[in-house]
Amino acid sequence: MPIHLTSRRQFITQLGAAVVLGQVGASAAEVDENLIAILNDTHIGVQHPESASIPTNLRNTIAWLLALPKRPAAVVINGDLALKDGKPGDYEHFAKLIAPLREAGVSVHLTMGNHDDRAVFYEVLKSEKPGSPAVESKHVGVVNLAGANLFLLDSLKETMVTQGLLGDAQVTWLTKLLDQHADKPALVFAHHNPRLGGDPLHFPGGLEDSEALWKELAARKHVKAYIHGHIHHRNFFEHEGIHILNTPATSYVADKKTSTTGWTMASLSNTGGSFTTHTHLPDHEWNGVKVDLKWRV
User: Per-domain residue ranges for the chain?
Assistant: First the structure.
């Protein structure tokens, strides 16, 4: 299982072509134990100059997070970390950009998207590779927070294949872990949208085994939300009592008339969560909009 640390600082050093994560002393900054930051679709490329919009968007988002009076208990970057097909240089650039979070002791958790390459990701971000995988050939994990448990899934079917797939082994692993962590609300993260619960049903690149997954999620009342990216847009839906959050891309959008780039801040409680969208365009209609969601009982 990947390393998911919530109370120790980490740093990134570059050694040849490899980026190695290590641990240093605990951060002195105050942390809001119920606050998480959600980013996705960063699409960082080796060829991007520092002044280009894509790395600038991620850099500015990280600067904003570090300037908060209380830092989030976790930052989840939910897939499509790399630009197109997960080159080593993409992940080296990505690692440098997220280094300020690691250095500040902020807990950072990464998932895989269809533009990622799991093997190359592990070659560069070495400490993300588990010694003994919880699910063979999948990058999964559980993050235990004060008010919720976050379940991080790997929906990468194959690099540069738009559709996502969890697979039977991962769904079995998830159901077992959900049953072992039923003490708090469960929020499930994966890069791909489920093919149910609103307009994402018709998005061609969704999760192929959505129905098999949902059968298990719906049967466990402590599962409250499924959070994804992939579509480079922003929507809120609900299916069988489970909230579905389509969070905005941090990198770029296909149609600037209907969408924009940004990130999401979630403030969680035992009974619900407040999800606030922040955009890189300060005057965008989404910027600062908070959506309060009540958990099913």
Answer: 9-294
